[in-house]
Design a protein that fits this description.
Elements (H helix, E strand, L loop, with lengths): L1 H14 L16 H23 L10 E7 L2 E7 L3 E6 L2 E4 L6 H7 L5 H4 L21 E6 L5 E5 L1 H4 L4 H10 L4 H14 L7 E6 L10 H6 L6 E7 L5 E3 L5 E3 L8 E5 L2 E3 L6 E2 L19
Antiparallel strand pairs: 1-2, 1-8, 2-5, 3-4, 3-6, 5-13, 6-7, 7-11, 9-10, 11-12
Helix pairs in contact: 1-2, 6-7
């Protein structure tokens, strides 16, 4: 797909450049990783929009995207539409992204409850989508990583078919078997109707990925700049960074700390500050972003 090709092509050289991803840009207050993700999602939006303008048969073409870059002790997450990122930390399973959808706006405004939303006919009406307009801002969030955090990136093909409580149970039961968890989630979505593309990425943060907490160890440690990222849109490939600093793209074998599934098949892949249109939505990055301002 255009989105994943543009994002991965733009991100890979930067991830391999040795640039310090955690460095904060003074003007925006975002890390270099967050800015890079923001820029590449914008480039993907332009690519889809230009293709739709140039080819009549593609008029109105659009998609959703969720992408993440893992670096140091942080993760930057960018999304547009209703593709989501969840995090399991200990026993707590929470959604980190906020859907750009009519249904979410109805929930936020109190018109319907989250329980009523499960039976709504407006599930597929997004209020922001990649490629629909010349400029579509992505929401960028940044969070602190903790050892053994598990991150789930998925399309609405999963979340429309499988309740979050069931997703949590599957991931919780298979914390050390993420390929099997991805396969089971896809099977459940297909069993429940499978009405849309199903994209699933599961990432566990190994303790050895995180930098040492001691200042002396950090000062003396080699400045290798190792970073790992995973990217996925509703239709496309995923790319990652190996533990030795090498870059590989699916279907090549990636490190064992990331696992993904897609279209009814599970593939084993080698395992905040918040920015949107409203600067007031920026948070500390240590916890969930503040409530959406309207």
């Amino acid at each position: 797909g255009i989105a994943v090709n543009v994002v991965s092509t733009g991100m890979l050289p930067e991830l391999g450049s040795g640039r310090e991803l955690s460095k904060v840009d003074i003007q925006s207050g975002l890390s270099h990783a967050a800015l890079l993700l923001q820029q590449q999602i914008a480039a993907a939006n332009k690519g889809i929009y230009d293709a739709a303008q140039a080819r009549p048969e593609c008029a109105g073409m659009g998609t959703t995207i969720v992408a993440a870059v893992f670096f140091g002790n942080r993760v930057s997450i960018g999304h547009i539409g209703d593709s989501r990122c969840y995090r399991m930390r200990g026993e707590k399973f929470e959604q980190l992204t906020h859907d750009h959808s009519l249904l979410q706006e109805q929930i936020d405004s109190g018109q319907i409850t989250a329980e009523q939303a499960k039976y709504s006919l407006n599930k597929n009406l997004v209020t922001r989508a990649l490629g629909i307009e010349a400029i579509v801002p992505a929401d960028i969030s940044e969070y602190r990583l903790e050892p053994n955090d598990i991150y789930l990136l998925c399309s609405d093909g999963l979340t429309d078919m499988v309740d979050p409580e069931v997703v949590q149970s599957v991931v919780d039961d298979k914390r050390t078997e993420l390929p099997q968890a991805a396969a089971e989630l896809i099977d459940l979505a297909n069993q429940n109707g499978g009405r849309d593309n199903i994209s699933v990425i599961l990432v566990r943060v190994p303790p050895e990925f995180l930098p040492s907490s001691g200042w002396a160890q950090r000062f003396l440690a080699p400045k290798t700049g190792i970073s790992r990222g995973a990217f996925r849109s509703r239709s496309g490939r995923s790319v990652g960074r190996t533990s030795d600093g090498g870059l590989r793209s699916a279907p090549a074998r990636l490190p064992p700390w990331a696992h993904q599934g897609r279209h009814g098949q599970a593939r084993t892949l080698p395992e905040g500050r918040h920015a949107g249109r409203d600067p007031a939505r920026q948070g500390t990055g240590d916890d969930r972003p503040p409530p959406r301002q309207r």
